[in-house]
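Incident log, structure service

09:12 report received: a user says their structure output differs between two submissions of the same chain.
09:20 pulled the input from the user's history:
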Amino acid sequence: MTVLVIAEHDRAELKAVTLHTVTAALQCASGDVHVLVVGAGASEAAKDAARIEGVARVIVAEGACLAENLAENTAAQILSVAHGYSHILFPASANGKNVAPRVAAKLDVAQISEITRVVAPDVFERPIYAGNVIATVQCSDAIKVVTVRPQSFDAAAASNGIAEKEIANQVDDFGQSCFVSRTIYSNERPELTGAQVIVSGGRGLGSAVNFNEVLGPLADQLNAGLGASLAAVDEGYAPNDWQVGQSGKIVAPQLYIACGISGAVQHLAGIKDARVIVAINSDEEAPIFSIADYGLVADLFVAVPELVIALGNAPSKRTPV
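09:34 re-ran on a clean worker, output below:
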């Protein structure tokens, strides 16, 4: 059984979620794992893909109509090479969730969403009910279209591979959708899905100004990504790209600090894989405390600046005894 992984990239380089998806693919495969790199000017990303350990072949499909990841064109390109694969795996990212359903529909198969474990090549585990239940799903379709929750799988080694490359014929423009514009938020902090530390804020911050003035220095001290709850995003305190939760980004950092976040079910579903969760909230009954490893019942406008000062005064290296 040969497995196809759909790479995610920004043209200049391969995104880390692809490495996690390759690990899931290796657990599905009894044969080779191939990676498909779709886009315009994707040659550098294809070089990165060829170096992934365990990947036997990299298929490159470049063209102007593939430049903006339109679901119709990207899906058509995937379908043009889909024959002969037992599995087609996508990262469960915004792009993956956009394209995978169309591929599954065109193949007339069921999509298996956000798997967290491969039990067997046709058996997978995935969370349901906001992560409160883990379902075991068996799929009998000839081609299994799967999205992979990257944080649930280790990243494949990205330097030892020697995959061969193949150039695919570009499909024609589907013609029923077009790219209009893209708004990109400049963010020098780590990307949430790959950050080792995340500082998140909720409605308790009260405003966008407070959000940045209070949480920004803490994130800077910890070299952390900045996240937000759905409520904070809805209030306009933070951009949509910062939303953490079931309807936002699923994260698994080493440390997650939740400030002024009550802990709605959809938010908790997005942070359960964090190794350590710290909650700061003035409401001692807030649901966030039910899953926090450390909880501080305090006014965040006092506690967070004090924490920043304490971190600033802390020695950078431990003094030998």
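09:41 both user submissions now match this output. Likely a transient worker issue. Closing.
09:42 reviewer note: The first helix runs from residue 16 to 28. Residues 317-321 have pLDDT under 50 and may be disordered.
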